[in-house]
Amino acid sequence: MSEMSAQREIDRSHMQVSDEVAIQITHMNKWYGNFHVLRDVNLSVHRGERIVIAGPSGSGKSTLIRCINRLEEHQSGEIIVDGTELSSDLKNIDKIRSEVGMVFQHFNLFPHLTILENCTLAPIWVRKVPRKEAVETAMHFLEKVKIPEQANKYPGQLSGGQQQRVAIARSLCMKPRIMLFDEPTSALDPEMIKEVLDTMVELAEEGMTMLCVTHEMGFARQVANRVIFMDQGQIVEQNEPEEFFNNPQHERTKLFLSQILGH
Amino acid sequence: MSNTHYVRSEMLSEQEPPAATTGAIGWVRENLFSSAFNSVVTLLALAFIYWLLAQALPWMVSPTWHASSLTECREIIAELGYGGACWGIIRERWLQFMFGFYPKELYWRVVLDFILLFVALAPVLFTHLPRKMLYFSAIYPFLMPWLLWGGTIWNPVMAALGFVIGYLASRHLAPVLGNLAATILAFVLPVIWWIFLSGPVADGIASVLPLAIQSVESRAFGGYMLSITIGVVAIALSLPIGILLALGRQSNLLIVRSLSVGFIEFIRGVPLITLLFVASTLLNIFMPPGTDFDIILRVIIMVTLFASAYMAEVIRGGLAALPRGQYEAADALGLDFWMAQRLIIMPQALKISIPGIVSTFIGVFKDTTLVSIIGLLDPLGLSRAILADAAWNGLVWEIYGFIAVMFFIFCFSMSRYSMYLERKLQTGHR
């Protein structure tokens, strides 16, 4: 996996982290029934940060980012996204969801709509953008993810990598200020992982605030400014990528890294 | 050199399949004569089909079209020398089979109504037709009963006005009163309008501007016209009600969910016949004396409720088949509940449920024959009356065969349409 990272130099000119806080999570807890999935999570994400969240399966990393756009409900603590607090107030939830883009492991494209319709649906219905403008925006982002020629096909006719790039374009069409990635490459064939990662790298170069749950450690080294390691529903260690990979502190982190990088 | 080493020097190009496996000969070999046993079965089946047609065709093409009684038929058949059907009864009675006792001089209204039905359905069924035709489809539900029952034009206009009131309330009251209040008023205001105001207002306008056509009693309705009227209305209404019930059953709101589950389970647990008896006899007991609640309307309501409960379960099956990710993607894009349902969930759930939905439609249409039991003269009810006629007493095959063929035509068309729709909505594997 890591060999994919060394392919090109990254343009870091736009990758500045500002002082402005994009996401503020304080003392957040979540339970599934009696199972304590997220335990006292504290995290603040600044605008322009690229954060990679790693950890063994079941450690709560997906749940954490799904709490940020309220696909999961947290039971205690506070999550503030772009200055809006997530509560059961539907207005706030809708506001945050339209500011935060999300890319899923299984793409979740709408199979009954064409690629173009997938991309224009939310801008037209949620943002009330005129159709013509929405189509222009969609084509712009489809060009950016390098599949404008597929615009009139259906998701079922595309490869996994192409579908995931469409999913990214679909999120971008809402002009989000924050992007969440939930294991975007885990369901892809090895040959397709790179095309998706390239798209994500480009996004990072443009200064997008990104939270990314992934096992692509090459991507983490190359793009992230912070790596967070989670286990048993808590943040175990976080550091800059260099330090994180070369000099892990916690025993659990060392074990994890030795297992995923050891072969 | 070891045997495990192999490098392909050039890639193979595509080749034609062997000739004997393609084309008509290939198809026959593959499908009819693929083995000795299959060949025998094929020949036996062909022999059976030949025997069946040899028996049935002469019976069907018997020259009894102009006979005016069973006795006359028998004479013609005796001359023929072989068994034949007695089609005179169909010639004499087919108009009655179509229109029941509807006044002859007003048949054109029924015919026009059903022609317009196809005009109204066309843009709904075939999406490549001009979208402007949908305006007519929206008017049709009010036009249809007016053409059938007749009377003043102001009744359907006032009924339509109720929907306009509901629409205006939901559209313009929301900024003033808030979403919830506007939604409630959008339901309550039209109901108040229909129950208390629309009647007097319609009468008032009619006395000033009497635009009316001759009205026809429900008792005169019969034959296929009755079956189609009940069937079409029940089918058209059961789909939206079924969708709402299916969503209600999945709702997080306890009361909505319990009401939906209770309704669905109650209706599914009761035979349709029972509901029809309730409609024909019991319902009048609960009505204030003197109210004239049309029997056909009562039957339509019962059949619709019955179909809706089944529809709800069919659609629930479609909803259950959708991956969780579709809901999450819709949520993550910021779509609210109704938008997500309308744009993402329902198009897919309904597509999955098409075979079940059409089965329910076909079932509803065939179930309309049950109304003969409560004394309405649908084709089956009429057939009993016709067979009681001394001239035709004793005929069975011709009349029931005719009814069966007519039902088959309607049901088979629905089934073919559903297959066309499934093919059209096929957008590659999911």
From TrEMBL, chain A:
Residues 23-257 form the ABC transporter domain. Gene3D superfamilies: P-loop containing nucleotide triphosphate hydrolases. Coiled coil: none annotated. Keywords: ATP-binding, Nucleotide-binding, Transport. InterPro entries: AAA+_ATPase, ABC_ATPase_HisP-typ, ABC_transporter-like_ATP-bd, ABC_transporter-like_CS, MetN_ABC_transporter-like, P-loop_NTPase. One of its GO terms (molecular function) is ATP hydrolysis activity. PROSITE patterns: ABC_TRANSPORTER_1 (PS00211), ABC_TRANSPORTER_2 (PS50893). Belongs to the ABC transporter superfamily. This is L-glutamine ABC transporter ATP-binding protein /L-glutamate ABC transporter ATP-binding protein /L-aspartate ABC transporter ATP-binding protein /L-asparagine ABC transporter ATP-binding protein. It comes from Tropicimonas sediminicola.
Automatic annotation (TrEMBL), chain B:
PROSITE patterns: ABC_TM1. It is a multi-pass membrane protein. It comes from the Bacteria. One of its GO terms (molecular function) is transmembrane transporter activity. Keywords: Cell membrane, Membrane, Transmembrane, Transmembrane helix, Transport. InterPro entries: AA_ABC_transptr_permease_3TM (IPR010065), ArtM/GltK/GlnP/TcyL/YhdX-like (IPR043429), MetI-like (IPR000515), MetI-like_sf (IPR035906). Residues 224-418 form the ABC transmembrane type-1 domain. It is found in: Cell inner membrane; Cell membrane. One of its GO terms (biological process) is amino acid transport. The chain crosses the membrane at residues 32-53, 106-126, 146-169, 176-196, 224-247, 259-283, 295-315, 352-377, 397-415. GO terms for cellular component: ATP-binding cassette (ABC) transporter complex. This is L-glutamine ABC transporter membrane protein /L-glutamate ABC transporter membrane protein /L-aspartate ABC transporter membrane protein /L-asparagine ABC transporter membrane protein. The keyword Ribosomal protein does not apply. Gene3D superfamilies: MetI-like. The keyword Iron does not apply. Belongs to the binding-protein-dependent transport system permease family. HisMQ subfamily. Its main location: membrane.
